């Protein structure tokens, strides 16, 4: 029986026939054994050549196919994981630069990264200094220099250790831009592959440009542009041979050789580079001998401040906005550099002794344009404008009167200015004077403590707390009547933002330091939706705040334009504040001691009000209020009108601009210094030093 190779049930299928049982031809098809398939088959007699294909050819084809696949995968991997653009972004420590509202840098955190340079435009000796010490055959090799590797190997074997590296400039760029600093064989292979990749896609000048823009030079400085300015106060194009050689020498050990800390070591390394330039033929012997040891700047060059009160406050939000920072990010802030300088200058001229100061200036929409958190950041970086929580004193009465106006009262409504007892708490007016029934306007202007306590009792503590919460106060507020006098603590920034809500005619106002506002989440959009004041309430608040400056405790803050504000002085003059606004600027000022000790004679209507006024006059570019002129002949009708407007009887105080005018019993006019100023000079009235009946409450002197 003849075996059938095509019959799967044939016992002889796929087997070699024994010698005595050869397969017989079937027609024109003869049986043959297929070496590739390792089985018997039938085919034309003239096609036995298929049986002659060697076995090793199969593996050769498979190997070539696998190599092509691996090459394609490697190319795709490099294109995805190591784009050429990353060769301009060395893995430096995170660096973020803050700019003002005009885009000018104001502060920096992290590394100093120079601008990219074009190697083709640099003087030849600058390029040659780096080539001489790092890669002499840079313009002739293809990314890997076998001669350099062999030379380094010989030198290292002779010295008994790793003394010299064989990496080319291209390899160093590949390592700096794409890889970590481990010394494994895998990393060296990847480095070589990327070097070939860079050589294939970039010109030599482009590779050198990226290398010089990335390399580290010590002192947290990256790139030759930053290094030239940092060490020599020059640009790369103006470096002389010695300076270029010193910078090239730093690349080997930048932290150890930085000339600001190791000038002797940097000079020795400079001499090595100059000798290498001569040996490579870049310098003649005469030119090399003429190079002298270089000097670096005696002092660090002026750089952006790495710490300021405003920068400290805005940095966390700036990092959030920038996202993951791997190299350098630039974030634009709301700071107005002109106003910041004015704020710092105004604070310096305030004549403060041991007391500290804080100032916040913002636009009505919450954009912070200036911030001073203390007299000296270098001595104390603690930001008293944002981090300190102090009692606001009578500046908190803003919320008491807002609640009163919301309840239906008006500035012309009356309130009793008489001693009051609220569950054993007996607040007092700081000047010891009580005027009986007075308008809310008069009570707010003279900052009557008893009137504020009565209003808090009348409208309810909850209504006052709600007014404060609506305007953005987030700190804890006690549920008791004493809050009307500012016994709960608050930051100056939050308090200033609350006053900004009045200027903005809507609430709440969120203070912010970044120019670009991120989109709110759906929850924030629902909960933080701004709300407006009714016309009557807003006009009433402006009336009250204006009266405080025109004829009340804030007279020292009087401007030649419409101004609105409120003073605040806490118990025993521990804290003094003035917060107000004019035109499109809202400013809060705090003065006090860090240890919360008393400041005899200090009041919100004194130093803080004058700081506020001086800053506003400069910031708004307005003329100061002219000194009052006292005429010998006084128009009695005018005096009577003032008396009627103020509501005070004859003999009471009539407020002028910077002076006190009082009518005597005989109708004569008595002119003298402002009483508030006399009070500051002689300290608080005796009543301020007496024990209180009940809990302590802030005072406001008048």
UniProtKB/TrEMBL annotation:
Membrane-spanning residues: 59-80
One GO process term, biological-process aspect: cell wall organization
Basic and acidic residues bias locations: 12-23, 676-695
Domain Penicillin-binding protein transpeptidase as annotated: residue spans: 359-617
Catalyzed reactions: Preferential cleavage: (Ac)2-L-Lys-D-Ala-|-D-Ala. Also transpeptidation of peptidyl-alanyl moieties that are N-acyl substituents of D-alanine; [GlcNAc-(1->4)-Mur2Ac(oyl-L-Ala-gamma-D-Glu-L-Lys-D-Ala-D-Ala)](n)-di-trans,octa-cis-undecaprenyl diphosphate + beta-D-GlcNAc-(1->4)-Mur2Ac(oyl-L-Ala-gamma-D-Glu-L-Lys-D-Ala-D-Ala)-di-trans,octa-cis-undecaprenyl diphosphate = [GlcNAc-(1->4)-Mur2Ac(oyl-L-Ala-gamma-D-Glu-L-Lys-D-Ala-D-Ala)](n+1)-di-trans,octa-cis-undecaprenyl diphosphate + di-trans,octa-cis-undecaprenyl diphosphate + H(+)
Any one Pfam family match given in the protein's UniProt record, by short name: Transgly
One cellular component term from this protein's GO annotations in UniProt: outer membrane-bounded periplasmic space
Pathway(s) it belongs to: Cell wall biogenesis; peptidoglycan biosynthesis
Key words of the record: Carboxypeptidase, Cell shape, Cell wall biogenesis/degradation, Glycosyltransferase, Hydrolase, Membrane, Multifunctional enzyme, Peptidoglycan synthesis, Protease, Transferase, Transmembrane, Transmembrane helix
Region annotation Disordered: where it falls in the sequence: 1-49, 664-702
Glycosyl transferase family domain sequence ranges: 114-277
Source organism, top-level taxon: Bacteria
One MF annotation (Gene Ontology) recorded for this entry: penicillin binding
UniProt record similarity statement: In the N-terminal section; belongs to the glycosyltransferase 51 family.
Protein name: PBP1A family penicillin-binding protein
